[in-house]
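Human: I would love a firmer grasp of how sequence relates to backbone shape in proteins. Take your time, and here it is.
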Amino acid sequence: MTKYVAFLRAINVGGHTVQMDNLRRLFEALRFTNVETFIASGNVIFESKSGNIKSLEQKIEKHLRKSLGYEVRTFVRAVPELAAVVNREAFSAKELNAPGHTLYIGFLAEKPENEATRRVLALSTATDDFAVHGSEVYWLCRTSFSESSVSGALLEKTLGLSATFRNVNTVRRLAAKYS
Protein backbone atom coordinates (compact mmCIF):
# COMPACT_ATOMS: atom_id res chain seq x y z
CA MET A 1 0.00 0.00 0.00
CA THR A 2 1.20 3.46 -0.85
CA LYS A 3 0.44 6.45 1.36
CA TYR A 4 -0.82 9.51 -0.51
CA VAL A 5 -1.94 13.04 0.25
CA ALA A 6 -4.82 14.50 -1.73
CA PHE A 7 -4.79 18.29 -1.87
CA LEU A 8 -8.36 19.34 -2.58
CA ARG A 9 -9.34 22.65 -4.14
CA ALA A 10 -12.59 24.34 -3.07
CA ILE A 11 -13.00 22.67 0.31
CA ASN A 12 -14.11 24.99 3.11
CA VAL A 13 -13.76 28.12 0.97
CA GLY A 14 -16.25 30.04 -1.10
CA GLY A 15 -19.27 28.73 0.76
CA HIS A 16 -18.40 25.06 0.21
CA THR A 17 -18.20 23.72 3.78
CA VAL A 18 -17.43 20.05 4.33
CA GLN A 19 -17.01 18.50 7.75
CA MET A 20 -13.75 16.56 8.01
CA ASP A 21 -15.45 13.40 9.32
CA ASN A 22 -17.72 13.48 6.25
CA LEU A 23 -14.71 13.97 3.98
CA ARG A 24 -13.03 10.95 5.58
CA ARG A 25 -16.15 8.84 4.99
CA LEU A 26 -16.22 9.91 1.34
CA PHE A 27 -12.64 8.69 0.90
CA GLU A 28 -13.37 5.47 2.78
CA ALA A 29 -16.31 4.85 0.42
CA LEU A 30 -13.70 4.70 -2.36
CA ARG A 31 -12.08 1.79 -0.46
CA PHE A 32 -9.04 3.78 0.56
CA THR A 33 -7.59 2.79 3.91
CA ASN A 34 -6.09 4.62 6.90
CA VAL A 35 -7.89 7.80 5.84
CA GLU A 36 -7.10 10.95 7.83
CA THR A 37 -7.64 14.65 7.31
CA PHE A 38 -5.11 17.32 8.16
CA ILE A 39 -6.46 20.74 9.14
CA ALA A 40 -9.80 21.72 7.64
CA SER A 41 -8.52 22.99 4.29
CA GLY A 42 -8.84 19.90 2.12
CA ASN A 43 -5.80 17.76 2.88
CA VAL A 44 -6.64 14.06 3.00
CA ILE A 45 -4.12 11.34 3.72
CA PHE A 46 -4.97 7.83 2.57
CA GLU A 47 -3.50 4.53 1.46
CA SER A 48 -4.21 2.75 -1.79
CA LYS A 49 -2.89 -0.21 -3.73
CA SER A 50 -3.08 1.85 -6.90
CA GLY A 51 0.12 3.36 -8.20
CA ASN A 52 -1.65 5.41 -10.87
CA ILE A 53 -1.93 8.96 -9.54
CA LYS A 54 -3.97 10.27 -12.51
CA SER A 55 -6.48 7.47 -12.00
CA LEU A 56 -6.70 8.24 -8.27
CA GLU A 57 -7.27 11.94 -8.97
CA GLN A 58 -10.04 11.19 -11.47
CA LYS A 59 -11.70 8.67 -9.17
CA ILE A 60 -11.70 11.10 -6.24
CA GLU A 61 -12.92 14.03 -8.35
CA LYS A 62 -15.79 12.01 -9.81
CA HIS A 63 -16.88 10.73 -6.39
CA LEU A 64 -16.67 14.16 -4.74
CA ARG A 65 -18.60 15.82 -7.59
CA LYS A 66 -21.36 13.23 -7.24
CA SER A 67 -21.39 13.37 -3.42
CA LEU A 68 -20.95 17.11 -2.85
CA GLY A 69 -22.64 18.47 -5.95
CA TYR A 70 -19.73 20.57 -7.20
CA GLU A 71 -16.32 20.10 -8.77
CA VAL A 72 -13.42 19.52 -6.38
CA ARG A 73 -10.13 19.55 -8.26
CA THR A 74 -7.83 17.00 -6.68
CA PHE A 75 -4.03 16.89 -6.70
CA VAL A 76 -2.51 13.69 -5.34
CA ARG A 77 1.10 13.22 -4.27
CA ALA A 78 2.76 10.16 -2.77
CA VAL A 79 4.17 10.96 0.66
CA PRO A 80 7.82 10.56 -0.47
CA GLU A 81 7.15 13.19 -3.16
CA LEU A 82 6.18 15.68 -0.45
CA ALA A 83 9.61 15.44 1.13
CA ALA A 84 11.17 16.33 -2.22
CA VAL A 85 8.72 19.21 -2.67
CA VAL A 86 9.51 20.79 0.70
CA ASN A 87 13.25 20.17 0.39
CA ARG A 88 13.50 21.81 -3.02
CA GLU A 89 15.47 25.05 -2.73
CA ALA A 90 13.29 27.23 -4.93
CA PHE A 91 14.55 30.36 -3.13
CA SER A 92 17.50 31.17 -0.89
CA ALA A 93 17.26 30.54 2.84
CA LYS A 94 17.83 34.27 3.38
CA GLU A 95 14.73 35.09 1.30
CA LEU A 96 12.62 32.39 2.92
CA ASN A 97 13.54 33.37 6.46
CA ALA A 98 13.20 37.13 6.06
CA PRO A 99 10.51 38.68 8.29
CA GLY A 100 7.15 38.91 6.55
CA HIS A 101 8.08 36.52 3.74
CA THR A 102 5.83 33.50 3.17
CA LEU A 103 6.25 30.62 0.75
CA TYR A 104 3.21 29.00 -0.86
CA ILE A 105 3.32 25.82 -2.88
CA GLY A 106 0.87 25.35 -5.72
CA PHE A 107 0.04 21.80 -6.71
CA LEU A 108 -0.80 21.21 -10.37
CA ALA A 109 -2.15 18.11 -12.11
CA GLU A 110 0.68 18.22 -14.63
CA LYS A 111 3.88 19.99 -15.48
CA PRO A 112 3.08 23.29 -17.24
CA GLU A 113 4.21 23.96 -20.78
CA ASN A 114 7.37 26.06 -21.16
CA GLU A 115 5.35 29.08 -22.35
CA ALA A 116 3.05 28.89 -19.30
CA THR A 117 6.10 28.68 -17.03
CA ARG A 118 7.58 31.73 -18.74
CA ARG A 119 4.32 33.67 -18.19
CA VAL A 120 4.29 32.79 -14.48
CA LEU A 121 7.92 33.84 -14.02
CA ALA A 122 7.08 37.11 -15.78
CA LEU A 123 4.63 37.90 -12.94
CA SER A 124 7.60 38.32 -10.56
CA THR A 125 7.83 41.69 -8.82
CA ALA A 126 9.59 43.10 -5.79
CA THR A 127 6.68 41.67 -3.76
CA ASP A 128 6.14 38.29 -5.40
CA ASP A 129 8.57 35.82 -6.88
CA PHE A 130 7.95 32.46 -8.52
CA ALA A 131 9.70 29.23 -9.37
CA VAL A 132 8.26 26.24 -11.21
CA HIS A 133 9.60 22.73 -10.66
CA GLY A 134 7.79 19.79 -12.20
CA SER A 135 4.11 20.04 -11.30
CA GLU A 136 4.57 22.53 -8.45
CA VAL A 137 4.69 26.31 -8.40
CA TYR A 138 6.62 27.99 -5.59
CA TRP A 139 5.33 31.46 -4.74
CA LEU A 140 7.40 33.63 -2.43
CA CYS A 141 5.24 36.46 -1.12
CA ARG A 142 7.29 39.21 0.52
CA THR A 143 4.28 40.96 2.04
CA SER A 144 0.96 39.94 3.48
CA PHE A 145 -1.12 37.80 1.15
CA SER A 146 -3.84 40.48 1.04
CA GLU A 147 -1.34 43.10 -0.17
CA SER A 148 -0.09 40.97 -3.06
CA SER A 149 -1.35 41.77 -6.54
CA VAL A 150 -1.16 38.05 -7.33
CA SER A 151 -3.78 35.46 -6.44
CA GLY A 152 -4.23 31.76 -6.94
CA ALA A 153 -6.86 32.54 -9.57
CA LEU A 154 -4.42 34.75 -11.50
CA LEU A 155 -1.77 32.03 -11.36
CA GLU A 156 -4.25 29.42 -12.61
CA LYS A 157 -5.26 31.68 -15.48
CA THR A 158 -1.62 32.41 -16.33
CA LEU A 159 -0.72 28.72 -16.24
CA GLY A 160 -3.84 27.59 -18.05
CA LEU A 161 -4.06 24.86 -15.39
CA SER A 162 -6.02 24.29 -12.21
CA ALA A 163 -4.03 24.51 -8.99
CA THR A 164 -4.43 24.53 -5.26
CA PHE A 165 -2.05 26.40 -2.96
CA ARG A 166 -0.82 25.59 0.52
CA ASN A 167 1.43 27.44 2.92
CA VAL A 168 4.81 25.70 3.01
CA ASN A 169 4.38 25.11 6.75
CA THR A 170 1.33 22.92 6.08
CA VAL A 171 3.23 20.90 3.48
CA ARG A 172 6.24 20.57 5.80
CA ARG A 173 4.04 19.32 8.62
CA LEU A 174 2.40 16.78 6.33
CA ALA A 175 5.75 15.54 5.05
CA ALA A 176 7.18 15.29 8.58
CA LYS A 177 4.14 13.55 10.04
CA TYR A 178 3.67 10.95 7.31
CA SER A 179 7.16 10.31 5.97
Observations:
- Helices lie at 20-28, 53-68, 79-87, 93-97, 114-121, 152-159, 168-178.
- The chain has two domains: 2-81, 87-178.
- Residues 87-178 form a domain with the Alpha-Beta Plaits fold (CATH 3.30.70).
